[in-house]
Amino acid sequence: MSTSSICHIVPEVCKAMIDCLQDCVQMPKNQEEWLQIVEGFEKRWNFPHCLGSIDGKHCILQAPANSGSDYFNYKSTFSIVLLALVDYDYNFLFADVGCQGRISDGGVFPHTSFCKKLYAGTLKLPEESILPGRTENVPYVFVADDAFALHKHILKPYGGTHENNSPKRTFNYRLSRARRVVENAFGILSSV
């Protein structure tokens, strides 16, 4: 779990959250642990090679003093962004909280420690392997929405509209189902 820029405003709260949750919010440490997540996504959500679901949630707050429009978001409220990676069973594997609401999920992501480790290749992800019924190795992926940039390990839906029963529409449906896990986890977190 990491924090972004709001910690200069409420450092005690951010530190307390990290101290309390650091044992609960942990990314896999090796390929075997990642493969357990992959197995869960395949069994429960019928989406193979999935390492987790990434998304951001705007957490509404009162505008911090002297912050101008930094925390004013596209929903016309003030917020900070909670960006998270969640496994197949709604468990948070990574969370970054505190980036100003004016910044999109895709804008927050590059500044997270998770993204930096992903791009540096230090997450100890499983080696590429063959999908059932195929012949070529493919990478394991994190599923995300359109706000995120494509990457070897980040998969997002095909853009545009697609005809019923087309391969792209079927793919988008299945990816959306796997990706909704993070949205559901945000819902569970909000209701507690």
Backbone shape = globular
Q: Spans with pLDDT under 50 lasting ≥5 residues?
A: 3-10
What class, by secondary structure content?
alpha/beta
- Count of separate DSSP helical elements: 5
Distance, first to last CA: 19 Å
Report the strand count: 8
Strand content: 15-25%
Radius of gyration from the alpha-carbon trace, in angstroms: 17 Å
The H-and-E topology, N to C, reads as EHHEEEHHEEEEH
- Largest sheet report: 6 strands, mixed
User: How helical, in percent, are the residues?
Assistant: 25-40%
Strand order of the largest sheet: 1-4-3-2-7-8
Overall structural domain count: 1
Overall mean pLDDT: 84
Organism: Acanthoscelides obtectus
GO molecular function: hydrolase activity; metal ion binding; nuclease activity
Pfam family, one: DDE_Tnp_4
Family: Belongs to the HARBI1 family.
Keywords:
HARBI1-like, hydrolase activity, 33% helix, nuclease activity, metal-binding, 192 residues, disordered N terminus, metal ion binding, alpha/beta, six-stranded mixed beta sheet, 8 strands
Write a concise synopsis of the structure shown.
The protein is of the alpha/beta class.
